[in-house]
Amino acid sequence: MTNDISRRDWLRGGSAAAVAMVMGNSRALAQDMAVPGFKPTAENPIRLGTNENPYGISRAARNAIIKMFDTAHHYGRGKYMELIQTLAEMEGVEPKNITFSSGSGEILKTLGLITKVEGGRVLTAEPTYHDLTRYAERRDVPITRVPVDENMTIDLDAMREAYTDDVSIIYLVNPNNPLPSIMHKDKLRDFCIDMSKKCLVFIDEAYHEYVENPDYETMVPLTATHENIVVARTASKIHGFAGVRLGIGYGSEAWIRKIREFMTGGTNQLAVAGAAESYKDTETQDFLRRKNRESLQITYNLFDKHGVEYVKSNSNFIFFKTGKDIQEVRKMFSENGIIVARPFPPFLDWCRVSMGKPEDMQYFAEVYEKLFT
Ligand SMILES: Cc1ncc(COP(=O)(O)O)c(C=O)c1O
According to CATH, what is the number of the domain 60-278? Predict the structure, then answer.
């Protein structure tokens, strides 16, 4: 164990890797630069490509999931209502304003499906997260994409101008992805209220828990007072449920009913039981935010030292300019044991890197300096 990792930090994140080492599970080991002597390789890389929580699911959530196994052979919703109640109180909405899905991606696709079935066009930014638009486009739903502004922020004035009568859904990601920028809370609130008189305004807040910017605000409270505003959240990010699958939809009673009607999957008792604990576990979330800040700082220091252009993060990833083709950059990183994200047109000489543990980012910095300086 390295000196800069406290025993507590080790117990939270490192013990899984220690167990994995004993059991010879290289995938889990690959996540832990804190294990002495560990060196990432192309076959056993560190994962900085999919914006995951590198510490995994919290102890409390893990224990709740294990306990739920006792009754997981029964049909039924398990702790569904308990989680709904917890979230309703946390967010200041009513239980009727909430639904769950198999990851928030299911809500995104469901809204794409509704647009296909009921007709209309999707208005969104470029670049942004692709689940909804990709799903809709494959079903011939027309899409209008509005480029981000010169500050790499979603341009709400340009979005208003791009609105046409056939738009049935406006999809905005806040903080955006792959650009970890945010929309200013006052401007976004006005936009949601105005535009929701014309169509559905759908805000994707997948990275909500990581934001520490006073200009940011969640739009969840608006979903309880305005008919045509829906917000998606996910347990995949700070809660570490990417492989467990729990998404959350907030909306008016009418929209929640419609989403449930169209959705074909939904979540499961284990995910719900884990989330019921994870969302209450603010201590672990504070720890993860602190670690994320440390990782961001290591990466900012690297980029500042070498004059690299980058978009400052409101999230758990950074978007930076390499000046080289992203496919080539991915290959170079991969050969050195690091996975970075896929291409995001039109920024094909930029790269998105997710925040691992601080020691992962130190390794990333070493590799960056070896390859690019
Ligand atoms: C902005 C955004 N929305 C939604 C998702 C979907 O996440 P999940 O389906 O795991 O909840 C992601 C995943 O990376 C994302 O970045």
Answer: 3.40.640.10
